[in-house]
Amino acid sequence: MKYKYHKLGLALLALTIITTSSSFAAAPFNDIEFSRYKSDILMLQEKGIIHGKGNDKFDPYAVLTMAEGIHLINASFGLNLDHVRFFKEPLATDYFINADDDAWYAYGLIIASVNGVQLKNDLVPTGKFTKEAFIAAAVGYMEV
After folding, report:
1. Are the CB atoms for 99 and 111 separated by under 8 Å?
2. Three-class SS string for 115-134?
3. For residues 33 and 16, what is the distance between their CA atoms, to the nearest angstrom?
4. CA–CA dist 99, 91 (Å, integer)
5. pLDDT, tens only, 95-129
6. pTM
7. Cβ partners under 8 Å of residue 110, min gap 6
8. Where in the chain are the domains?
9. Per-residue pLDDT averaged across 50-55, rounded?
10. Which of 63, 68, 77 shows the shortest CA–CA distance to 114?
11. What's the whole-number mean pLDDT along residues 41-45?
12. 14 touches 50 (CB < 8 A)
């Protein structure tokens, strides 16, 4: 249980950085040079928990989407499908009616759902993931 709380701490740190960071330019992200969270952002990137928006951008002022938040939860808790065998290849739309099976986030939605992260089946992956919803999903997973 202590290990799960450590992982939750990393997830909450990532959420805090994503939602409150100030920015401007550096490597590997070229928009965090002046962020007070620069070292934390880089540490989370090195651990594979955050990946940015592409083109060397972290985009610290962006709103966290449901898909991005679910990816953070998966990465923070080390969730995967290594322990699961399926009779039929799962699709994101098997679990979430508003998902796109060809989108970058599809596999992450499957991972979260199969591992017991409690999410509504009508979530909109591109919709805003509030801090409250993020914490509820992370804590809900810890209680499973």
Report:
1. no
2. CCCCCCCCCCCCCECCHHHH
3. 17
4. 9
5. 999 999 999 999 999 999 999 999 999 999 999 99
6. 0.73
7. 81, 90, 91, 92, 94, 95
8. 2-142
9. 79
10. 77
11. 85
12. yes
